[in-house]
Design goal:
zinc, OB fold (Dihydrolipoamide Acetyltransferase, E2P), GTP-binding, Rossmann fold, alpha/beta, single chain, RNA-binding, ribosome biogenesis
């Protein structure tokens, strides 16, 4: 990502401000607003970084759609003054979006304007294939470049086998073995991480420890992992955006217990690229990859080049994604119906008022 910029917001260059953003901001600047990047979000307010340094700003009423709420990584136009306010969010170049924790039909943005998404997997245990595939689909869908990072490889029984397994789960993505203790892979990983970077993974995966190694300082709190289940506590309690010493910025996210897919059709195709590639050779365009004659996907399983588990996982995530999409469609229909009913009630009240005159 380019860090060339005009002199006006020069101090923001280390946070990712560039010429394209600067040119798109001219209208806001003429209205007296200043550019800022959201580095942390609290209810009713945001911490932002501006050309003059950090600032706490208020936010307007909570939007009906959580996707429109400010998120760590957002670029914004801020109205300065005694009571500074976030006036408008700039269009996002990318966004990590999952289904909301409440399981409503809304999506939730985990991080905005992300260039590289690192899926962090602890090497001290066998990877959960479905979890890795889910996070990769999320990353691919966002528009960011995914990288799979195995942490704690100094404690792994068979790190080569682990990396081979992860590579099969992540077609098209780099897979890097790292150890903060020995320093293995840290330099290579630093070279792959560019622009705005987000770390994704469950608690205990080693995200905060890895982030501290990349930052070159213990900026983030780390916690011990429970022996009985290998899971860690949520040492990161909110998403924060921190500049890296070699350029770029890092977003450390809280551990993700559950990640539901939200409108991730393209992300699933990229995460399961080898299945999509095989499917192009099927005899029928609408092949379900089950018992149809001439199914290239089933032929791939029979030949040993594709695992049945991988196909089952793809189908499961496709069903989940379709279910989330149907809920969103149902919500939008309900909102349109409510809007129509409100108009009808207003018209009826108007007619009754006219009738009494």
């Amino acid at each position: 990502m380019s860090h060339n910029t005009s002199a006006h917001p020069g101090d923001l260059a280390s946070f990712g401000w560039d010429e394209t953003l600067d040119q798109s901001f001219s209208e806001h600047r003429s209205a007296g607003l200043i550019p800022a990047r959201v580095i942390g979000v609290d209810r009713g307010s945001c911490d932002v970084i501006t050309a003059d340094g950090p600032m706490r700003v208020g936010t307007s009423a909570t939007p009906a759609d959580p996707l429109e709420a400010p998120c760590t990584g957002d670029w914004a136009a801020v109205r300065p003054g005694a009571d500074p306010q976030l006036a408008v969010l700039l269009p996002r170049r990318s966004a990590i979006v999952r289904s909301s924790v409440s399981r409503s039909s809304h999506g939730q943005v985990l991080a905005a304007n992300v260039d590289t998404a690192a899926v962090v997997v602890p090497a001290v245990e066998r990877p959960n294939p479905g979890q890795v595939e889910r996070l990769l689909a999320l990353a691919w869908e966002s528009g960011a470049v995914p990288i799979v990072v195995a942490t704690k490889v100094d404690q792994a029984e068979d790190p080569e086998r682990l990396i081979a397994e992860l590579a099969l789960l992540a077609p098209g993505a780099e897979t890097v073995a790292t150890s903060v203790v020995t320093g293995e892979g840290i330099d290579r990983l630093s070279g792959l991480l560019t622009g705005t970077i987000v770390l994704l993974g469950r608690s205990g995966a080693g995200k905060s420890t890895l982030a501290n190694a990349l930052l070159g300082a213990d900026r983030l709190t780390t916690g011990a992992v429970r022996e009985q289940d290998g899971k860690g506590r949520h040492t990161t309690v909110r998403r924060e955006l921190i500049p890296l010493p070699g350029g770029g910025v890092l977003i450390d996210t809280p551990g993700l217990r559950g990640v539901g897919l939200f409108d991730a059709d393209e992300g699933l195709k990229r995460a399961f690229a080898e299945i999509e590639e095989l499917a192009r050779g099927c005899r029928f365009a609408d092949c379900g990859h089950e018992t149809e004659p001439g199914c290239a996907v089933q032929a791939g399983i029979d030949a040993g080049g594709l695992s049945a588990r991988r196909l089952d996982s793809y189908r499961k995530l496709q069903r989940e994604n379709a279910w989330a999409a149907s809920r969103t469609d149902a919500r939008l229909r309900a909102e349109r119906d409510d809007h129509k009913k409100a108009i009808t009630r207003h018209l009826r009240a108007t007619y009754r008022f006219r009738g009494r005159k």
